[in-house]
Amino acid sequence: MPLNVGLVGAGMIGADHARRIGTAVAGARVAAVTDIDPDRAAAVAASCGARTAASDREVVDAGDVDAVLVASWGPAHAESVLAAVAARKPVFCEKPLATTAEDCLKIIEAEQASGRRLVQVGFMRRYDTGYRALKRLVDGGDLGEPLMVHCVHRNAEVPESYHSAMAVQDTAVHEIDAVRWLLDDEITSAQVLFPKRTRNRFDHLRDPQVMLFETASGARVDVEVFVNCRYGYDIRCEVVGETGTAELPPPAEPAVRSAARLSTAVVQDWKDRFADAYDTEIREWTAAAAEGTASGPSSWDGYAAAVVTDAAVRSQQTGDVVPTGIGRRPDFYA
Ligand SMILES: NC(=O)c1ccc[n+]([C@@H]2O[C@H](COP(=O)([O-])OP(=O)(O)OC[C@H]3O[C@@H](n4cnc5c(N)ncnc54)[C@H](O)[C@@H]3O)[C@@H](O)[C@H]2O)c1
Ligand SMILES: O[C@H]1[C@H](O)[C@@H](O)[C@H](O)[C@@H](O)[C@H]1O
């Protein structure tokens, strides 16, 4: 019997995950799809042989839905995740887990009360082969004690609806999770600085931004976010340890020698850059969900990302170093 997945949110990434479940994941199928835009729900349902449902509640409560995939807008995530946890169904939630730390805590409490892990958050970098290789080096002690991490997150461009806080909440949130995971260390403070602004995009947007984080052990992390860099999608990460450094490998692209030039194409967007990571992420989610549980990035990771992004957004107003106030991770999430 395949795992029957109920999809909440049939936008860009929801449709992509539905396609992925149909083509790249064995032992799972999409059974029901809902979206507040019924046309989108109908189109995605038709593309994967599923039925449509009127609401997230209907998806969660359906007798033939074993697990729920939430890919709606961030502000709608908490309600759907809480409903799935209440129904004791495994749930994958695209980032962010919730848009407030308070809602993340409600999910943590409900999940702990259920007695087992049910929630996986969509931080797909943890499934990227390059990041996994970096993690093995850090964990294996090959670099000595990690002291610093230098990160770059560049998008070719963003739509007009993208605003300055999203550079933290939507974009740097990936580095925030990846660095916590790589170093196995919590982020305790955040600061955001604004360099000279690009003239190439909207007046309302501060772009680029430089974000500085400190971890509980004293490691320092810098993240350059530049979401209108024009030339492509560019993700970099270098861990500097006491005895060595390691850098994320660039995506494998052929080196082309032609017309007296040696060149390599730059990947253009996140869907291509992390395509394999998304496949692995959803495969590992469905495998755990088939066992009635969840693995990978947890509700605690979703909460930690929320408190760090809150601190960084506050720092955007003043430039101050803002403590994150992160507490102790419950043993449930050890
Ligand atoms: N992990 C990643 O790299 C990654 C990449 C892109 C998007 N995301 C996340 O995925 C989520 C969706 O992003 P997107 O780019 O697909 O956005 P999108 O706007 O294309 O799609 C969101 C969909 O959710 C629907 N929706 C909103 N509220 C709903 C509700 N209450 N019930 C049902 N449907 C609802 C909208 O109608 C829309 O179709 C966001 O949280 C985003 O941050 C993650
Ligand atoms: O929602 C997207 C997505 O998370 C991408 O991975 C990131 O590079 C973009 O900056 C963000 O807007």
From TrEMBL:
Domain Gfo/Idh/MocA-like oxidoreductase C-terminal as annotated: residue spans: 135-323
Residue span(s) of domain Gfo/Idh/MocA-like oxidoreductase N-terminal: 3-123
UniProt GO molecular function: inositol 2-dehydrogenase (NAD+) activity; nucleotide binding
EC category: oxidoreductase
Record keyword Oxidoreductase present: yes
Catalytic activity reported: myo-inositol + NAD(+) = scyllo-inosose + NADH + H(+)
GO biological-process terms attached to the record: inositol catabolic process
InterPro entries in the cross-refs: Gfo-Idh-MocA_inositol_DH, Gfo/Idh/MocA-like_OxRdtase_C, Gfo/Idh/MocA-like_OxRdtase_N, MI/DCI_dehydrogenase, NAD(P)-bd_dom_sf
Keywords: NAD, Oxidoreductase
Highest taxon listed in the record's lineage: Bacteria
Signal peptide limits: none
EC id: 1.1.1.18
Protein's job: Involved in the oxidation of myo-inositol (MI) to 2-keto-myo-inositol (2KMI or 2-inosose).
Complexes and interactors: Homotetramer.
Family from the record: Belongs to the Gfo/Idh/MocA family.
Protein name: Inositol 2-dehydrogenase
Taxonomic source organism: Nocardiopsis composta
Lineage of producing organism: Bacteria, Bacillati, Actinomycetota, Actinomycetes, Streptosporangiales
